[in-house]
Amino acid sequence: MSPRAGGFTLIEVMVALAITAIALVAGLKATAALTDNAQRQGTLLLAQVCAENQLISLRLARQLPGVGDTTGDCVQAGRALQVTQSVRPTPNPNFRRVEASVSENSVFIVRVSTIVGRN
Questions:
Q1: Is 99 exposed, middle or buried (0-12, 13-18, 19+ CB in 10 A)?
Q2: Antiparallel, parallel or unpaired: β 79-89 and 95-104
Q3: Using the 8-state DSSP alphabet, how is residue 6 labeled?
Q4: Are 93 and 66 in contact (CB under 8 A)?
Q5: Cα–Cα distance measured from residue 97 to residue 86, given in angstroms and rounded to the nearest whole number
Q6: Which of 79, 87, 105, 112 gives the lowest tally of CB atoms within 10 Å of its CB?
Q7: What values do phi and psi take at 89, rounded to 5?
Q8: Given this model, what pLDDT does residue 30 score?
Q9: How many secondary structure helices (H) and strands (E) does the chain include?
Q10: How far apart are the C-alpha atoms of 109 and 41, rounded to whole Å?
Q11: Phi and psi of 11, rounded to 5°?
């Protein structure tokens, strides 16, 4: 009987390569998920800025807004977002419920609501 030569068999090398490949694919998927999440967070932040700017401009007007819907554009960081403002009456005629919905390319992003009163 001859002593066994040192080294790895082909099967051992193939198993090690398969494990390494699986670990790399899992790492790439995790990195892609983190990148997508960062992009979504950036889009959400820009949309919130647009919605809040719309609601703040109503408060600064210092008058009760008319009931109805209006749509306008909001450019933030070079991205064109669409803001739809919906003004609805409340049981108290001195207040109005206002919603600012923001979308990009017809994809809804965020909705912010507030109550505006007579000043």
A1: middle
A2: antiparallel
A3: S
A4: no
A5: 8
A6: 105
A7: -70, 160
A8: 94
A9: 1, 4
A10: 10
A11: -65, -40
Rounded CA separation 54/102 (Å): 10
Q: Which helix (H) or strand (E) holds 38?
A: helix 10-61
Q: How far is CA 101 from the centre of its chain?
A: 13
Q: What pTM was computed for the model?
A: 0.72
Q: What is the dihedral sign for C-alpha 67, 73, 77, 79?
A: positive
User: Coil, helix or strand for 87?
Assistant: strand
Kindly state the tokens that stand for 15.
Answer: 């198993």
Number of residues written out for the chain: 119
> Token pair for residue 78?
């070079």
Tell me which residues of the chain have a pLDDT lower than 50: none
Q: Which two tokens stand for residue 7?
A: 């080294």
